Amino acid sequence: MNSEQPSILSGYNLWELMAKEVRRPGEKEEAQTITEILKQPDNTEEVNMGRALTSLSKGLDNTFGAGLSGICGGDSVKAKLFRPHECVLCSYYGMPVELNTSVTAFDAHTSGEPRGKKTGSVMLFKLSANLPGESAPSSTARDLEWGVNCIKGVFVTGDKINYFEIAQTSGDDIVVVELHPFGERALNLSQELGRFIASREESSTAI
């Protein structure tokens, strides 16, 4: 094999092309790890689709070709809830406030396929706040507010991890924007995902 680059390669994005291949085996393993973790939530709840989740489903469908599917074809979806995996101390006009990051997940189904056919999982990184000394609010999917307590997420299939952000257009109408896997925002989200995975593995080991 010739190790010298022929002139025809000039102008191609070789770094990204090669980076995708180097990333692929690790990405598949991480996707499989996440899939297993999502099978063991701390709690679940049935949530009415409503306008917010309907908009999310449409946005996911437009971007990834998969959306949320109601339970038994109804208007409710099953949310998988995970306790906060990260807490940071912030300040609001000099007053200390704790911000907690937790994951809310939903099953995703391919458009045009039978409702029972699952194609992946949607993970939303949600923020909640409390004063120091107070317990973190209970995890729930009933108070999702795009642009307020939820803006970032991950769409995971059997071998691929897709990072995205939610851009609010008006009211509950949103656009799901896929992030470039090698961009800074995707990297930051990947690190957050790593912290979530580590917290769940630590909990599993402790048990």
Brief summary:
With 207 residues, this protein is of the alpha+beta class. It is built from 3 helices and 9 strands.
Describe this structure in words.
By secondary structure, this protein is of the alpha+beta class. Strands 1, 2, 3, 4, 5, 6, 7, 8 and 9 form a 9-stranded antiparallel beta sheet that branches. Strand 5 and strand 6 form a beta hairpin. The longest helix has 24 residues. The termini are far apart. The relative contact order is 0.16. The model has no long low-confidence stretch (mean pLDDT 85).
- Low-confidence spans: none
Silhouette = globular
- The average pLDDT value, as a whole number, equals 85
Count the DSSP helices.
3
SSE run: HEHEEEEEEEEH
Based on the model shown, name its key terms:
single chain, 207 residues, nine-stranded antiparallel β-sheet, alpha+beta, 30% helix
Write the layout of secondary structure elements.
Elements: H1 14-37, E1 43-48, H2 50-64, E2 66-67, E3 76-81, E4 86-92, E5 95-110, E6 118-130, E7 150-156, E8 161-170, E9 173-178, H3 184-206
Antiparallel strand pairs: 1-3, 2-5, 3-5, 4-5, 5-6, 6-7, 7-8, 8-9
